[in-house]
Amino acid sequence: MKQNSALQILPSIDQLLRHETLQPLIAEHGRSAVLAQSKTEVARLRNELDNCAPDSRDTAIELLGQRINGGLQALFAPSLKPVLNLSGIVLHTNLGRACYPQPAIDAMVAVSQGASNLEYNLSTGKRGRRDDHVEQWICRLTGAEAATTVNNNAAAVMLVLNTLAAGRNVIVSRGELIEIGGSFRMPAIMQSAGCKLREVGTTNRTHLVDYENAIGRKTAALMKVHPSNYEVQGFNKSVSAKELAALAKSRNLPLYDDLGSGSLIDLAAHGLPAERTAQQALQEGCDLITFSGDKLLGGPQCGIIAGKRALIKRIDKNPMKRAMRLDKVTLAALEAVLKLYANPDQLTSQLPSLRMLTRSTEEIDKLATQLATRLRANLNDAIKVTTESCQSQIGSGALPTRTLPSMATVLRTAADGPAIKTLAAALRQLPVPVIGRIHDDALWLDCRTLDDPSQVGIPVEFTRQ
After folding, report:
1. Mapped to the 3 state alphabet, what secondary structure does the chain carry?
2. Is the pLDDT of residue 166 over 80?
3. Is the pLDDT of residue 379 over 50?
4. Tens digit of pLDDT for each residue in 286-295?
5. Which of 350, 383, 403 lies at the terminal end of a domain, its last residue?
6. Tens of pLDDT along 97-112?
């Protein structure tokens, strides 16, 4: 009888939808969404009646209204949201890699609000080529004869290999058969591209004669691959692009160099570890190069293919190119980022990724101290806050063994306090999630990538009472 009595208190779905409590939700989200959520919450409350039966229908409607509102807010909340990357990895693959400069954001908004001349030539009034919007800048900055773009560098590698070597052999050093994030392996990419891997040398030592001896009737190209996330040290030997270019030219073969992260500037001039640039690769004699747009370049996710005009024309005619092409928003962002490189003196102030990478430890220390002061004033006494030196990583396969001196705000919990993983989880649940890293039973918030300490929220459950 008690169960039946409680069931009578529950409103019908129709009564619930007509109640004034749900009218703002219907206006905001639509009747269909509110109806579906109402059915879910009524069914859930019905199953809970033995433990938490409302004392009246009005109470039941109020409770259901709160639950329906909470469910709808969770349903319609953006899944993809901004976070504060304080992990210590500047170009973090899982956190979106490079941050966009404001000119790129403005360009993306401008072309997304209406029609654009994506594939329309305003001079001739005829159909245009979408890569024309960025090709001249890629060529200007790299010295390439021509260029084209696809949706990421893995796609660029696949497209180049499929165009140059479908059904034929590509010669690569064993020391360059890398695996990148997500168990994505170079041999697997080559197989998917329809070409055959001809590996030469050993993991740590490959000589020019190894390439020479491997060239045969079915050879389509020679290939170099950036080591990405690892580096062979000690007793090792590799063949330079310049040496391979001379060999490739003597055998009438193209030399293709996958640069991976891809840099357009001399990083050493900015106090960073040196990285071979796209310009250098082409000057060394590479016929084609590929690299990412969202790593050292500091722009949107894309793959850039540059080099000899005749080879780029072949690549553009490959049917796979259409499946990998860039949309108007990405092209707008890429063009805006490339234009920033025309003024190298202002690049460190205009390009967020380079600004973060070149920050001085003094500036980072100041930010870490400001953040520590703020956290000490707001977090409860169970959490100890200090500032300590640390090492930042560039990330995303760029300069894998090199780190940059940095400063972090470090959070430790008392022996009888909450677990550090609990604190880290609470920071991740903030409206703007804060992503740090746990090391030595402490949560490290590397401030190299922090601009404003006040952006770091305080979890309510850890505030001073």
Report:
1. CHHHHHHHHCCCHHHHHHCHHHHHHHHHHCHHHHHHHHHHHHHHHHHCHHHHCCCCHHHHHHHHHHHHHHHHHHHHCCCCCCCEECCCECCCHHHCCCCCCHHHHHHHHHHHCCCCCCCEECCCCEECCCCHHHHHHHHHHHCCCEEEEECCHHHHHHHHHHHHHCCCEEEEEHHHCCEECCCEEHHHHHHHCCCEEEEECCCCECCHHHHHHHCCCCEEEEEEECCCCCCCCCCCECCCHHHHHHHHHHCCCCEEEEEECCECCCHHHHCCCCCCEHHHHHHCCCCEEEEECCCCCCCCCCEEEEECHHHHHHHHHCCHHHHHCCCHHHHHHHHHHHHHCCCHHHHHHHCHHHHHHCCCHHHHHHHHHHHHHHHHHHECCCEEEEEEEEEEEEECCEEEEEEEEEEEEEEEECCCCCCHHHHHHHHHCCCCCEECEEECCEEEEEHHHCCCHHHCCCCHHHECC
2. yes
3. yes
4. 999 999 999 9
5. 350
6. 999 999 999 999 999 9
Q: Give domain status of residue 212, yes or no.
A: yes
202 and 239 in a single domain? The answer is: yes
Q: Does residue 97 lie in a domain region? A: no
Residue 179: predicted pLDDT: 66
Angstrom distance (rounded) from CA 409 to CA 87: 11
Residues in the chain: 465
156 and 215 housed in the same domain = yes
309 and 220, same structural domain?
Answer: yes
Q: State whether 331 and 437 are in the same domain.
A: no
User: What is the widest separation between alpha-carbon atoms in the chain?
Assistant: 94
Residue at 456 is within a domain: yes
The answer on 384 and 438 residing in a single domain is: yes
**Is 106 in the same domain as 136?**
yes
Q: Last residue of a domain, which of 350, 377, 395?
A: 350
Q: Specify if 132 maps to a domain.
A: yes
What is the domain count for the chain? 3
27-37 CB burial, b ≥16 within 10 A, e <16: eebeeebbbeb
Residue 184: per-residue pLDDT: 65
Residue 409: give its domain's CATH number: 3.90.1150.180
Query: Using 50, 70 and 90 to split pLDDT, how confident is the model at 230?
Result: low
* 267 and 166 fall within a common domain: yes
342 with 437, same domain: the answer is no
pTM of the complete model: 0.90
Identify the domain containing residue 408 by its residue range: 84-92+356-462
pLDDT of residue 1: 36
